[in-house]
Amino acid sequence: MNDDRPRLAGRRIVVGVTGSIATYKAVTLVRLLQQSGATVDVAMTRAATRFVTALTFESLTQRPAVTDLMALDADRRIAHVELAEAADAVVVAPATANAIAEMAVGLVRNPVTAIACAGRGRVVVAPAMDAGMWTHPATERNVETLRGFGYLVIEPGFGALASGLTGAGRLAEPATIVEAMERLFARSGDLEGLRIVVSAGGTREPLDPVRFIGNRSSGKMGVAIAEAARDRGASVTLIAGALSVASPGGVTVVEAPTAASMREAVLRSAPGADIVVMAAAVSDFAPSRASQRKIKRDGAPLRIDLVPNPDIIAEVAEMPAEVRPFLIGFAAETNDMEANATGKLRDKGLDLIVANEIGGPFDAIGSDENKVAVFGREGNLTDWPMLPKRQVAERLWDLIADRYRGQESSTDPSAPRGASRRS
Ligand code: C5P
Predict the structure, then answer these.
(1) Would the CB of 331 count as within 6 Å of ligand 1?
(2) What pTM was estimated for this model as a whole?
(3) Residue 42 contacts by C-beta under 8 Å, 6 or more apart in sequence?
(4) Residue 73 banded pLDDT, cuts 50, 70, 90
């Protein structure tokens, strides 16, 4: 690969400019995005045109700037819809408190928020406002909402503000915004060529044809991990236990409702995989036998013998070095998270373990958000807040990809593909 290639070559980016004293910095942003190879279009709010004219941007981009929601393009199509459809990313910079509030509630009264809302690509938001507005609970809540949509928010800097005060609220430097966008697209194909197996959801261990022993796992975390890997170019197999969400398109789905069927599916696909993520909540026990007929109530107590299920991930860890994938487990813990998670990492012979809390304010099960800590052999590797599960998935892939590649480059070809087992 040619590393001299401009990092945004082939990307179409819309810069959405709103009205702020920082509006003039959008001119530099457009220049830098162009220098990085992007084709840039500009959309502006009416307020933005009072700070910098559309002519400035049109001269730079040699394309019409969209300033009117009702405008048609040269082909008589609605300009903001066409742009939104085509853009790989929309970057709203500067984004005023008002623009952020509008995006958070889905108001599309100007071309900038309309394109951000209608776009199919990534949305990047670079706020600029007075410090009081930036730290107001309404803005904080709106920014969190945008993050929840998967938008990338580039934090404003600290310094002198237009009001004469000093504080947080200065638009991030245009170069910083461009770097963030380059990273965004660098990542979007960073798992290209990798075969990744993800297990998700809970298993259901049958007692009879109707009843089972199961757990509350929704599968949302594992599905988000599979989707993020797919979007980053990997070829993904999802081994699906019981899911309360739809399984994603664009991945190979293998249904595995019981621990036994999940074991079979994982052991079949793991030797051909580069990375296996076991996010499934596999039942530790199963009834020793499932009744062929529905168990009847006869007034007497019912005794069920439970036998331990095989530890699937530990079996994968024991695979011969030539076929053993890089291996990530999950640990759901109610207490002593670090000690339990690192104990499991060691005992099961994993490369990484993702720990999350069950019960309490950060209950991971079934929710749309998750607060996780990732542990490697050297200890805790992360300090992440509570995040939407898709964002957790993206951060996990950043970390896993780094580790996986680091290990690939530091081992000779005959060395194990994953960490050495139970040392
Ligand atoms: O021991 P515990 O169930 O807490 O370990 C959790 C990790 O081990 C998860 O990655 C889970 O998918 C995996 N596991 C497994 N087979 C089992 C039990 C758990 O692969 N029987």
Answers:
(1) yes
(2) 0.64
(3) 14, 15, 16, 17, 26, 30, 54, 57, 58, 61, 63, 65, 66
(4) confident
Complete domains list, the chain, with CATH: 12-184 (3.40.50.1950), 195-294+302-422 (3.40.50.10300)
* In the predicted structure, residue 72 carries a pLDDT above the cut 50: yes
Q: What is the CA radius of gyration of the chain?
A: 25
| CA-proximal residue: ligand 1, atom 2 (nearest) | 331
d(CA 131, CA 96): 12
pLDDT digits (tens, 9 = 90+) for 89-142: 999 999 999 999 999 999 999 999 999 999 878 999 999 999 999 999 999 999
For residue 245, how far is its CA from the centre of ligand 1 (angstroms)? Answer: 21
Contact 238, 198 (CB under 8 A): yes
Paired tokens of 215: 């757990």
Q: Tell me the Ramachandran region of residue 349: left when phi exceeds 0, alpha when psi lies from -120 to 50, beta otherwise.
A: left
- Residue 379 parent element (H or E): strand 379-380
How confident is the model over 226-254, as pLDDT tens digits?
999 988 889 999 999 999 999 888 889 99
- Please tell me if the CB atom of residue 241 comes closer than 6 angstroms to any atom of ligand 1: no
**Residue having the nearest C-alpha atom to atom 19 of ligand 1:** 282
Sign of the dihedral through C-alpha 248, 249, 253, 255 = positive
258: Cβ–Cβ under 8 A, 6 or more apart, which residues?
203, 204, 205, 206, 286
For residue 313, how far is its CA from the centre of ligand 1 (angstroms)?
6
Residue 218 beta carbon below 6 angstroms from any ligand 1 atom:
no
Active-site positions read 215
pLDDT at 186 over 60: yes
Q: Considering only 11-15, 306-310, 344-348, which range has the smallest mean pLDDT?
A: 11-15
| Rounded distance from Cα 195 to ligand 1 centre (Å) | 21
